[in-house]
Each structure stands twice: as C-alpha cells, then as structure tokens.
Write a structure and sequence with these properties.
By secondary structure, the chain is mainly alpha-helical. The chain has two domains: 47 residues, Orthogonal Bundle (Arc Repressor Mutant, subunit A), CATH 1.10.10.60; 129 residues. It contains nine helices and no strands. Helix 5 packs across helix 6 and helix 5 crosses helix 7. It is globular. The termini are far apart. This is TetR/AcrR family transcriptional regulator. InterPro entries: Homeodomain-like_sf, HTH-type_TetR-like_transc_reg, HTH_TetR. Keywords: DNA-binding, Transcription, Transcription regulation.
Length: 188
C-alpha cells in the first residue's frame, strides 16, 4: 500500500508525544509572546493540528494550567523546606518566574476571573503564609511585613515586567524595583 504523501494520522500511538510537544510549544510561546498567543500558533509550533491541541486541552486555561502547574508545584516544594531561608528562595524563584514568563501571572489572573474554584492564588498565599513567619522569626524579614505586602510587591514586579518597553532592560528594572521591597533582594 502506498502513502498519499500527506500527513499520516498515527492516532493514539503518539498521543502522549503530541501532548508533550504541545506543552513544550506552549511553554516557549507563552514565555516569548505572552498568554494570549494564538492557540493555532502553539499547534503549529508543536507540529500538530488544532484538533489535536483541543483534544488534549479544550480551553486556553486547560493548556495554561498544564504548562504552569509545574511552577506552582515548584513554589510549594520550596515552601515545604523547613528552614528560615525558604521564604527568600521562594521569593527569588517567584520573581524569576514572573520575569521569565509574565504569562504565568496572566494565566492566574484569567483563572481567578473565569473560574470560581481556581486554587492557584490560594496555593501561593498558603506557601507564603508558611514561610514568611519562619523568616521573620529568624530576623531575615521585618516583623511588620505581611503576606498581603508580599503579594502587592509581586504585582508591582509584574507591572514592571509587562510595561518595560525594551525587553533587554526588564531585569535591570526589576532589580531597581526590588530595592524598594521591604523584604526582597535583587534577583541575579
């Protein structure tokens, strides 16, 4: 039997490979172009048709949750470390994730607005609530700093990231902004 020369649908045999290709492409494009990159661009980058993308991820949020779940899990793992320095490592990683991919924050904002049961914000708050008191008890963070303060500074950092006109200046602008944080140190 001869092939027609077009794409051959290998069906379920490559479903897990297709899913991973979609996740990899989505991570790259969300990072490079933002959360609202066309899903058709993600499918093309992954080398799959849009139908395949939608079969795995029916909505943009489904795809973003799958892409960014690792970020939340990583932050939770850092927060689970029992030492007083966990807060500093958590903060540095949160800022780095925000600088590297503002789409991570955009996804959380979209989810909070669209899905009443979205738990990402509560998960981040819980990990901050667990680590901040340990850092304060060790004298690493002032006693007046609250979790709400930390989240406010994070939103301000996000604002710096998305409003800096020249991408090569984002890191320097974030470091300048962090000098004003009552608990943060510039991320390198």
């Amino acid at each position: 039997m001869t092939s027609s020369g077009g794409r051959v649908n290998r069906g379920p045999a490559v479903a897990s490979q297709n899913r991973q290709a979609i996740l990899d492409a989505a991570w790259r494009l969300f990072t490079e172009r933002g959360y609202h990159v066309p899903l058709s661009a993600i499918a093309k980058e992954a080398g799959v048709g849009q139908g395949v993308l939608y079969r795995h991820f029916p909505t943009r949020l489904d795809l973003a949750f799958a892409v960014f779940e690792d970020n939340l899990a990583e932050l939770e793992a850092i927060g689970a470390e029992p030492d007083a320095g966990a807060f500093g490592r958590l903060w540095e990683r949160l800022v780095a994730l925000t600088v590297d991919s503002a789409a991570f924050v955009e996804m959380a904002v979209d989810a909070r607005r669209s899905l009443p049961d979205y738990t990402g914000g509560r998960r981040l708050q819980a990990v901050l609530e667990a680590t901040l008191p340990r850092a304060q008890q060790a004298g690493l963070v002032g006693p007046a700093v609250t979790v709400d303060d930390v989240l406010l500074v994070h939103r301000m950092i996000y604002g710096v990231v998305v409003t800096e006109i020249e991408p090569e200046k984002v890191q320097a602008a974030v470091q300048r902004a962090l000098r004003w944080a009552p608990f943060g140190r510039p991320v390198t």
